[in-house]
Amino acid sequence: MPDDLKAKATFKYNGQTSQNGGYLDKDLLTNSEDSLIIMHRPSPQGTWNRADSFEVRSGFSSNDKRGEIDVFDAKTGEYALAIYDASQPDTFSTSSPDTCRELTTSSLDGRSRAPGFQIYPNPANQQVTITFEPPPENSQQIGVFDRTGNLITTKTTDPNTTNCQLNTSHWANGVYFIKLLNGAPTDSRRLVVLDHR
């Protein structure tokens, strides 16, 4: 991975499992002074450490156990929710290991993004327009990936073209990633496809 890669990741959580409360408020959050944090380890064999730079955006009320955590300097590896124990400052209680998720970073900051690369409308239901600056090769190859990283389709544009359209009417609803495959740097954008009816 390049040394200058900068990535941001957003983790959504929902600790509500019933009207009586869920995992976060019954088992993990036991003291109102404790704080929800996110832990990282580079591999399953690695040591868990508190993520370096993150922000927690909690739910709509103090009883709402839903929210998001933005990790501003995301690294590849695994992430888990944890509680910072206010009564024991060096103690962290992590969520169940089987709820850990592996992150493959693909979102680059503005310094590394391909200039002029945009997709619209987003969400899309029938068609999406992709704009970009022409690459040195004079034609652009575009790849469409599903959320698991499988390549769904590719399209090569005519030389010196700065936009193209993709028909999304036959795609299943969900999240896709549109990636410019040639030119420097390569870059990707997240696309949501919604109901086609």
Report on this model:
This protein folds into two domains: 9-103, Immunoglobulin-like (Sandwich); 118-193, Sandwich (Immunoglobulin-like). The chain contains one helix and 15 strands. The protein has one helix at 23-28; strands spanning 9-14, 35-41, 49-50, 54-58, 66-71, 77-84, 92-94, 101-103, 118-120, 127-131, 141-146, 151-156, 163-167, 174-180, 187-193. Strands 2, 3, 6, 7 and 8 form a five-stranded antiparallel beta sheet that branches. It starts with 8 loop residues before the first strand and ends with a strand.
The mean pLDDT is 71
Oligomer: single chain
Please summarize the sheet with the most strands.
5 strands, antiparallel
Beta strand %: 35-45%
Shape: elongated
The CATH architecture term of the largest domain is Sandwich
Q: What is the count of structural domains? A: 2
CATH class of the largest domain: Mainly Beta
